[in-house]
User: Fold these one by one.
Assistant:
Number 1:
Amino acid sequence: MVPWSFRAPAPTIEIPSGLSPTFSVIIAVYNAAAYLPQAIESCLLQSMQALEIIVVDDGSTDDFDRAIAPFLDQILLLRQANRGESSAKNAAVLAASGDYVVILDADDVAFSDRIEALNAFAIERPDLDIITHDDVLTQDGEFLRNFFNETHTFPVHKQREEILKRCFIVNPAVKRSAWIENRGYDENLRIGADWDLWIRMILSGCVAGAVVEPLVEYRQWGGNLTSDRLASFASRVALFSKTQLRDDLSASERIVLENSLVDVQRRLAWEAVIAADPSARSALSAVFRNSRQSLRTRSRAGAALVTPSALRKWVFARRDEVRETK
């Protein structure tokens, strides 16, 4: 009996167990020399070894060469001019030879049984295109929470709708063929390219499963992209707006998507106002123009565009709404 619990949609046809697949771990690096050795070491200390570990240096300007030197005979190293994380990960996938590519960020640490757990699930369910797992999230070394919890669970039903509401995939193993077929990360998205790819894959028919137990320590630092809430919400507006252009959404899926866009537009406007960011006016204008926003929200946003006092009132009202939903 395996020591892990698995969750996935029930197969639509009988799926016999498969053979043990191969796994390529991919690590994209940009100015993460302080953390990279731990990430690589965690991959080398696995109870079941990956086929290969591919590290892509995305034009780092820190002490990358010193950090990578002890591992040069144990990894495949690629170098490129700085073109962004999405470009680096796409390059790693193209260079990989494993059946699955397994994502690990350069500042994260894999638990020692990660590949073994992914392999066990892949054998049991060879029909899955994406195998994610729980993660332990830490902030500057302090435990924050698990990725999956009572309010953020892994869905086994209606994955097409659920992926339009929230990203329930983190640091997954992805069938290399499915990644390439779906054109990989959109290199025009600075943040959220992973969620965008999972949306495209699941809407194209791919199925995701999850190992319930945590297999990675997902480490956040003061300088992480994920700490930039304003940029994060702006990226969600971009990827939801992009997804609206699809012509293969059902009526219910389109409603879910439009509701997600309505919510994130409000959040973006509020964050921009709080930060006194120059984008605040355009964010408020987007809220005001969206007919799916409530009349009260549109009225507040419109008034906030006109007078500073109304702007302050809108901020306090939004803060109260956010507190009520927590």
Number 2:
Amino acid sequence: MFCLLWWGVPSSWKLAVKSGFSEFHAPLWDVSSRLDDLSNYWGHLSDSKKTLIENGKQIQRIGHNQSLQVKNIESLSKEADRLRRLRLRIQNLEKELDLDPPVLYQPVITRITRRSLPSWWQSISLRKGKNSSLEKGLGVIFKDGVVGRIHTVGARSSEIELITNTSFRIVAHFAGDERPVTFQGNGISLGGIPSGIVYDVPQDLSASKTKPLSLITSPLGGTFPKGISLGKVVELEGGKDGLFQMGQVVMSKELCSLQEVTVLVPQN
């Protein structure tokens, strides 16, 4: 019944009653708190000397633990500062190096319309041109590796300078060795085998028929992504300058009988 009556009392009256209730009890709560403090005080006065010593030791242990925690916090703060400085140094170094993002390529597949292999200028013609986003200088590949790069381009056709052309040069490196070497086309032999020459090979590398070296493209070349096959090297000999080696690069026979190729169009 009282609850129902209290529920019907206006809110302003409820607040006034609550405030008055708190004001009425405040002195009582204050007195109760002071009595507890006084009881604590007189209780400790009656403690024995041994108890007081133990309490003092406990207070010392608490203080020692607190000092250790403070030192630990200071050490963590110094480590956090060191990591922040290291992160800033890395960010500044990245800005100074101005590292370029990796190039992404859009593959454009096209059929071959004409071959010109026996002449001194080895080339093939493609069915696509500017209308398919092809441009001069773009790299061309097939399943076994590099075919060449686009030399001339029209609206609906283009011509590839083959990798075997003696004017074709590119920076490359051997698989498992990041040191740059130079590749140059060397024509097509009488047996119909495409070949090239590799120059500037370090003296500590060796090649044989049982352990050939795989020559692949390097990002330093600027035309192809890293890792596309150029051919195999089975023998190395001293170069003209005596500082580096050189050797013949044997490529896939299918290079002379291709039906279609893939042009790599950079996206960024």
Number 3:
Amino acid sequence: MTRTHTLMRYGARLLAAASVLLLAACERPPMESVQHGYRGTGMVQVVNPSTIPARIEANEVPVALPAVPADGPKAKQVYKNVQVLGDLSAAQFTRLMASMTTWIAPEEGCGYCHNLANFAEDSKYTKVVARRMIQMTQHVNEDWKSHVADTGVTCWTCHRGQPVPAAVWFKPDTTLAGADFIGDRAGQNEPAASVKLASLPSDPFTPYLLGDLPIRVGGTTALPTGNRQSIKQAEWTYSLMTHMSASLGVNCTYCHNTQNFAKWEGGPPQRVTAWHGIRMVRDLNTAYMEPLTPVFPAHRKGEMGDVAKANCATCHQGAYKPLNGQSMLKDFPELSKAGTAVPAVVAALAASAPAAGKATAKPAR
């Protein structure tokens, strides 16, 4: 009897240990749900209350410097080589530069982008990049209101006090190492954080947020009359949707109607916003990030020699709206007036660089 009790006790301990390992990736209850659609449709958002304080802290915004007069000498009259923001007053220009320092490089200070012995020169690549990033921010606020509305974005939205945003991506090396009898696995069954460790293609960014391949799941016609939607294409789409869900900290029903995920009719308005967001990110990656490839040094590039690019997590960082919907743009309206001229240094380097390769990763037919 004693031996039996001992075995039962050890068995219970083993079962408890196995349960801990099995549930290690699960969130601790209790969970809460918030209904945002018709009852009985499953249109709810599941929230873990224990994660809310950390999310609030991660999305706090810094206190804005006091506003300064818009009159007085222009920045381009006071300082040399001001290719962007030159029409601001010198006081406004200085205020924005000081703010950008705290948003992007609080430890390095002005020296992160400038030669402290000569602020006007463009010897540091970080200054060249920052100048173009200001224009990119203005472009988002001016031309992508369909996604950011009047809330807008600033440098802080992505950087949050870091020189490189926490969430960026590079093209993966898709070269097969030796013989692969399975064929093109499309990065599946790899523990990739980009798709929350799911057995889905690990790079949904190259085809959809750099390239413009169709995002689709199921066909609407029977084979063989033009139905090109395949199971593998659906897996790529699910890969992108998983990324978006995790980036915003929401369920699939935040954007989709459970009656029919493919239908637009009766769906939440957030789906339209997300549709514009995908195209906005694609625009930023192709028009602003990729052309900066010759500007960045090798140690700032990925294994395939490409520059860091944006995805949904770059701005959202786990919040359904970046910074939980708080707007910093109202304090920095100069970041909403778009300038179209490409800075001279960027234009010259882009013209002399080899043509960038097109997005190669794509869903298999």
Number 4:
Amino acid sequence: MYIIVIGCGRVGAELSQVLASEGHNVVVIDRNQAAFAQLGEGFNGVTISGSGFDEEILKEAGIEKADAVACVTDKDNVNIISAQVAKKVFGVQKVIARIYDPKKEETYDELGLDVIGGTSLVARLIKEHLIYSHPIHRVADGRCDVIEIEVNEELEAISIEKIEKKRKTKVLAVISEDEIFSPEKEMIPKKGYVLIAINKREME
């Protein structure tokens, strides 16, 4: 796939590295030239210094042939505008935007944009959502484990809040057949959905 990543902060850099290492053609856009240092010497993609919603910059990045665009700067408004330009002006079918402020989620929905909230899992979630129809991943850090819970007969009739109490976990996101979203506490997930949850790791 030909993928443009707008924003080369921690998430953008990790996302770009993972995509490039898997053989995708990756172009990274960031206003700050120095930010590209985070990509490391082994990065084999293209970097362009400029605004992610500047049409000339996007054309230089090859947006007219892009299969997907990920807007992952540290500013919600920049992500909204960049995603809108990619989707509405250039007709890119798959556009993912990172969101920091959950209050703005309704705005993203009204604009018809796919969004993913901020956690240490963001880069992997975005990468999986861009490339695969049914994401599968398991990651961990030093203090906690991020796990997958598939909703079965035992869990399909109870709310997210009750699942959290039952499994002693915190649900970060729900993966349905065609989207990833943050759940409400009272939501009752359907059988077959996958819950991305975080558990506190017991120190040995």
